[in-house]
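Table S2 (text version). Query chain:
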Amino acid sequence: MDPPANVDWSGVAHAPAGARPRIACLVPSLTELLFALELGEYVVARTGFCVHPRAARPVPKVGGTKDPDLDRLRALAPSHLIVNVDENTREIVAAAREFVAHVIVTHPVHPAKNARLYRLFGLLFGRVREAELLAQELTGAMECARVAALALPREDVLYLIWRNPWMTVSRATYVSATLALAGWDTVPEHAELRYPVVADDDAAWRNARRILLSTEPFAFRERDAVALAAQRYRSVHLVDGEWTSWYGVRAIAGIRSLTAMRAAILG
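Corresponding structure-token output:
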């Protein structure tokens, strides 16, 4: 059961922001969500990776998700800062708390929790109606994915996000939960780390029915899929990493795209 709509993932309850908040966002997918909720005019800072939508590009950049320029961020005087457990470091968040009054911590680990994100932002920034409309779209996309997944056999997949060394995702991650919604269960089934290294002789290579290569954070390309298929004697497919790992509004299109992709492969 979700907590009250104004409580973030760190357990902090936030009051409504008021008429003209100054919002900084260190999470690319959530910068996009702010614009989808028609809050773009209040976004005063973003990372260099916050490339969606195009309307966000004039917003001042403050560096990367892991290494933002805190002096630059301070100079932009945000009233609110949006961060994420996976994408931003504890040290950066702690330092930002020294000069940002309201730090909003996010950490959805399942696509269904995007509805909680929508409602949190909607309540804090006066976009309750817009947030509910997005939540309805999300519910529809997830139901379509569930029905489509039932019509096809489930498959174990090795979802690779990095090379040298090869790295994958554990089932405790948002990415794995999104793939499972579409009918793809990630291997290994059990992993101590959220993003484990896959050795060349790891059983995951053998246990996977097919291999999926993400376009981010490592920029795998079609030539990588062709080479790996020849090496591992498995079907290998390139997957847009934004479909599986971006929260917010892009999750809706991502779920739909994964559903269509799996139907095209197995249908």
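Notes on Table S2: The chain has a mean pLDDT of 96. Strands lie at 23-25, 43-45, 80-84, 102-106, 155-162, 167-168, 184-186, 210-214, 235-239.
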